[in-house]
Amino acid sequence: MDVTRRDFLFLKAGAASHPATLSCETLYMRFLDSQLDGSTERLFAQLADDLRHVDAVTLTDRSWLTDAALSEQLETVFDDFRKRGGRID
To answer: Which of 6, 8, 27, 34 could form a disulfide with 40 if both were Cys (CB 3.0 to 4.6 A apart)?
Structure first.
């Protein structure tokens, strides 16, 4: 699947044969913002939607995933992604 035609909210799309990249730092910052404006549910819905367009994703800067609330919601999104055959590197 060619994902280079679109910039995702979170995912930096690579070539069709390469996984998309998700910056955990960027995700964490957007998560904090979403807690302030009440858009956390929408944030994770958008991430889930973005993941529907890729087969694999590489996480960068994983040290930003120490927040329990972020990790819990992220794991829910990732579980659905894996069930559809997605791979997280």
So the answer is: 34
